[in-house]
Amino acid sequence: MFIDQIKPYQEKGSYYVIGFILVLISMQMGQIPMLIAMLIQNPKGYSRLQEHPEELFGVLSQNETFFLILCSFAVAMAALFAIVKYMHKRPLLSLFTGRTHFDFKRFWCGFLLWGTISTAFILWQVWANPTNYSWQYNPSQFWLLVVIAVVMIPIQTTFEELFLRGYLLQGIALATKHRGWAWIGTSVCFGLLHIMNPEIQKIGYVLLIYYIGTGLFLGAIALVDEGLEISIGFHAANNLMMAILLTSTWSAFQTPSLWLDKSEPDVFWEIFIPVACCFPLLFFIFSKLFKWQNISAKLWRINS
User: Fold this and answer.
1) SS3 of the chain: helix, strand, coil, percent, to 5
2) What is the mean predicted confidence (pLDDT) over 158-163?
């Protein structure tokens, strides 16, 4: 089973503490290209950016900033792979799934289902409230964005899934001997890792309900389905559609997308509809598609 992939390798809990720290350090090192680019563009402006990080997107072009932000995730993923292979001496597949191979059917199911739903929802929002959105299509900037997003966003989202709902999920389960604590712990970590996002500054800490709720949803899928394929597909579709179709002045990704959202965030639609309605419905659909059984036991039982 997925969460038990570590058993044959007689893992030590201290390895996960060291690995966690090394991955966080690698993410910081991955921001060095961004720092260099900003200093080249505006040598005297770095100190101001430290005081006013919201001005980050005004230093470089949107596509340059978007690409450089995502580069840190590529560096972190490379570090995670090296840690698993050389420190833990485990096959990389054990980080992805409990199956003998990566199941692309599950990946595409998660990607296409949520990609279709999120795209339809964005288009409905634009149609229903046209005054809240402005069309900002610029061919040269937009198609460069598409290339960057298609290449880099799957790296970012796959890293987050592997690190949180692969590496840490297995590590916490090893330490606590309990699936439930691993599930909750990684979900809270997922929320806290987004606490510096500009959306939090705009909407408030209530948005953590969405991030932790998303973590619980994706973590539940990983545990019950015995792999990350669906979660990786879902996460990639979510971030890809938001980067390409719609952005706002207060979102984490500032991109030359098709539409710019000029409205104030709606807590009901941004938080409670996805967490209370969409995620439970999707979980039910996946459970029927893949014939999940013993769901409560897989989510909340003591590991031997």
Assistant:
1) 75, 5, 20
2) 96
